[in-house]
Design a protein that fits this description.
57% of the residues lie in helices and 8% in strands. It is mainly alpha-helical. Strands 1-2 form a two-stranded antiparallel sheet. Helix 1 packs across helix 2 (42-54). The longest helix has 18 residues, at 59-76.
């Protein structure tokens, strides 16, 4: 059985690292943009589908996505 985390405010609670400052709507926007530009990695596509279908995503996948978002944010700004 896969380890899933429910997508809610508790999951996106701010911690010590800036990667955890992203909210659920920002993560969905990021995933949708990556998919629409055909730049989404396999685990991002899987995460998007899991969120849409089950409202959950694997904790390890969520960490990878946040890390990618943080890198992109730092490159952009």
């Amino acid at each position: 059985m896969k380890n899933y985390e429910t997508i809610n405010e508790e999951v996106f609670e701010m911690n010590m690292t800036r990667e955890d400052n992203f909210g659920s709507s920002e993560i969905m926007y990021y995933l949708e943009e990556m998919i629409s530009m055909d730049m989404g990695k396999d685990y991002e596509l899987e995460a998007y589908q899991d969120i849409k279908w089950y409202g959950k995503v694997k904790k390890s996948t969520l960490k990878k996505i946040k890390r990618n978002m943080y890198k992109l944010y730092n490159e952009k700004f």
